[in-house]
Amino acid sequence: MASNTEFSNPLRKYKLVFLGEQSVGKTSLITRFMYDTFDNTYQATIGIDFLSKTMYLSERTVRLQLWDTAGQERFRSLIPSYIRDSSVAVVVYDTTNRVSFMNTAKWIEDVRAERGTDVIIVLVGNKTDLNEKREVSVEEGETKAKDHNVMFIETSAKAGHNVKTLFRRIAQALPGANTNTADGNSKEQMEKVDLHNSEGNEVSGCAC
Amino acid sequence: MEEVQSSLTLANQLEENGQIKDAYMSYVSLAEDSLSFLKDIKFIQSAIISQPKQYASLISAMRTCLSHMEHIIETHSPGTPARILAQHTGDSNKLPKPPLPPKPSRIHKPVLPPKPARGVISRPSSPTSDEYLQDKSSEQTQPQQTQQPVESVVRPKPPTPNTVSNSRPYSVPSPDNRTLQKHRPFTEIRPPSDSTIIVSDGEVDPTHLVPAQTNVDSLNSSISSDHIPLIPAPPLLTTHRILQTKLDDLEMSLKETKSRKQQLLSDHQVLDPMTEDDINHHILQYSRQVADTKLILNRVRTIYMSAATIPTIMHFKAHITAYQITQIEAVIFNAIPPSALISHSAKQPHPRIVASTDFFNYFTRLIEHSILFPQEASARAQLIHYWIKVASRCLELNNYQTLKAIVSALGTPPVERLRRTWAYIPKKSVTKLETLGELMSEADNYGRYREQMGMVNTTVVNGKSVAQIRAEHYTKPTIPFLGTIIHDITYLMAAFKSSPASSNMAPEDEPRIHEVLEIMRRFQQGPKYQTGLPAISNALHRGASGIGRISSNGLFGFGGNSNNTNVNGNGRESTGGTSIISGYGAEDDDKDGDDTEDGNMEEQQEMVTQYLLMRPWVNQDTVDQLSLLREPPRQRRTP
């Protein structure tokens, strides 16, 4: 079945989950990334398939489903099901808020506990536009990323800095891409993603 | 606590042996110790975030000590037979403050019906009596004393220490209470139910929040970082507190009246018959009221105790649990002003929204812990099975908030990883859970759920008009899942703020935002869940052993011959105190409770609510560790 789906559906969907404390800018990153479509179409598409975007890379096309816990961080027990079946976890902190940086370790652990190595994790330090208020240096971020064996980037959702780069890097790192950085278990995961994919199509059937 | 108990016993023995000095000093030091434990309290502004462990027992022990000290002073002082009332205040102030001794016991049981019989014995020297004394001293000469118990019951700040947190704002007095303030004519012989109906009718107050009980254990290192959710106070606690205050007042009045009689007798030798009649009449009235109140109080305690000793949630039928949790959720949901959605933010969370998320977290943790508690995998499986049944019932009740909570709780890592346990779950039950899980899944931005609710931005879903779907939901009592509403508002606000329109338009006027708020409003204004359980379920609760024996008469209706038509709808016309007795007795003759469905059911409902709101808060680490303990990991789980 998995292989069938692969043939019949060349447009792969990948689940990206955004994690991090409240007000670190997860929603801003997403709205910035979606901006071209978001601003014009949110009226029509809020609800089903609201946060999906197709990315056209040189060698292939992927569809990213962005799962945002927006405003629901207080519902702690909701988070595990967001993490479940995700291909990518984007763990965001606010560079002007050290506590939010400290807490990223917990999020990374949670993702690892649930997804093992079958997941790409990106540590994102957001709000670099507020440089004068910075509490976490670039080096600290890099070190932490290295310690946890995850990708790292700093962004400013407000200024639009590095947002596209973030998503392009994620897309390139996805399993199946030529520049595949994920390790051995990726086959299993792709099956999962594909299963999810077919369900998604049934429900949404959305043309956006 | 055992230490305190044994010290108390020891002091008692000394006293009995005639070693008065030693006994007295033991009481003093025990009182000092208890007092110093009571300093172990943490406030944030005026809210208590951490209460002294076993405060009720400590306070009760102190009372006992004080009363014994008082007794010793009175009986062993030369030539001072008269009681010096003022000494009460002196006692507590004089106590020196010793260094903190080692803590007696770390477990704070959530149980504790605050004052058992011992409290009654020691009441004369209760620290609260000062207040009564003041009340009385000014009123002693006034003839209209009967009015006093009526008023004092509705006094908004009862000083009894039974409450979990006295400093929190009180629940708004129910309309019942207010009507009672009208004074009864003095001559009325039976002042029966003014005393009894006053008791709050057991409803959950969404604004009276208290920290969930905590079990302080060896893992308390993480307690400081763990946010303890604030949840609605168990209504039975409020009831108990009100009753206790009332009883204190009544007993005080009784005592006053009696001593007045004595005084009159000694002053005038011959009493004016009118006055004597009058006073005797008073004494009779007070005695009756005291007896009535004690009886009710005992019943409250019995239910309270029963709820506290119930070993597992499975004691209750799934549909009753579902119904009670739905009632609690409904109250919390309806208390959220739609505008709160707009002002709510990470930095300035709206308290009513936090109340909802806190309760969600409390409840999911309660579920996790209930499942992880039994040692046997089969027993854990029964609990999972049980919660799936409750979840199905919640769907029938259109309670999507709790449905989501249960599905989430069963999917959290500590529960989900229990492979041996899950192997016991009947396939039918697993399938049911999968169906519920799909309905509440986050996939496609809660696509399935939004379809079900008509919360989509199209006009037609699956061949059905969205307007029609919504309208159908509005005709039934419904609690939507707050998460999607918060999610939508978050995004709509983000879009709104970045749009040029935001400069000259209020967010709630933006059409999409307005629509979400309107949906919220419509749900809140929709039909309400009835207090009583829908009739279908009646015969189902038989065999819930033990509970049926306590009584059949609705707990909170007790003396319900008031003009309030049957708050509980249990249909029993009762007349004050006697009805309680007869109701009680009747129940004794009818132990199986087969034909007392209404009262019995209602009492079960109260007990479920009590049980649900009195679970200890267990932190994340504890749950994780418990899970590993129950089913140690063998190898890495394949996903």
* Beta-strand residue fraction of chain B: under 5%
Q: Which ranges of chain B are low-confidence, i.e. pLDDT below 50, for 5 or more consecutive residues?
A: 80-200, 218-224, 536-598
Rg result of chain A? 17 Å
> CATH superfamily membership of the domain at 315-531 and 610-614 in chain B, which one?
Ras guanine-nucleotide exchange factors catalytic domain
In the CATH hierarchy, the third-tier topology of the domain at 315-531 and 610-614 in chain B is known as Son of Sevenless (SoS) protein, Chain S, domain 2
How many domains of chain A? The number is 1
What structural class do helix, strand and pairing data of chain B support?
Answer: mainly alpha
How large is the count of helical segments of chain A? Answer: 9
The CATH top-level class label of the domain at 315-531 and 610-614 in chain B: Mainly Alpha
State the low-pLDDT regions of chain A, or none. 1-8, 178-208
- Name the helicity range of chain B: 55-70%
**Shape estimate of chain A:** globular
Could you give the count of β-strands of chain B? 8
Protein name (chain A): Ras family-domain-containing protein
Family (chain A): Belongs to the small GTPase superfamily. Rab family.
Pfam family, one (chain A): Ras
Organism (chain A): Absidia repens
Would you write up a description of this structure?
- The complex is a heterodimer of chains A (208) and B (639).
- By secondary structure, chain A is α/β, with parallel strands linked by helices.
- In chain A, 43% of the residues lie in helices and 19% in strands.
- In chain A, helix 7 links the parallel strand 5 (120-126) and strand 6.
- In chain A, helix 2 packs across helix 3.
- Residues 1-8 and 178-208 of chain A have low confidence and may be disordered.
- Chain B is mostly helical and 639 residues long.
- In chain B, strands 1-2 form a two-stranded antiparallel ribbon. A two-stranded antiparallel sheet of chain B has the order 3-5. In chain B, strands 4-8 form a two-stranded parallel sheet.
- In chain B, helix 2 (20-38) packs antiparallel against helix 3 (55-76), helix 10 runs antiparallel to helix 11 (273-309) and helix 11 packs across helix 25 (576-589).
- Mean pLDDT of chain B is 73; it is low at 80-200, 218-224 and 536-598.
- Chain A: InterPro entries: P-loop_NTPase (IPR027417), Rab (IPR050227), Small_GTP-bd (IPR005225), Small_GTPase (IPR001806).
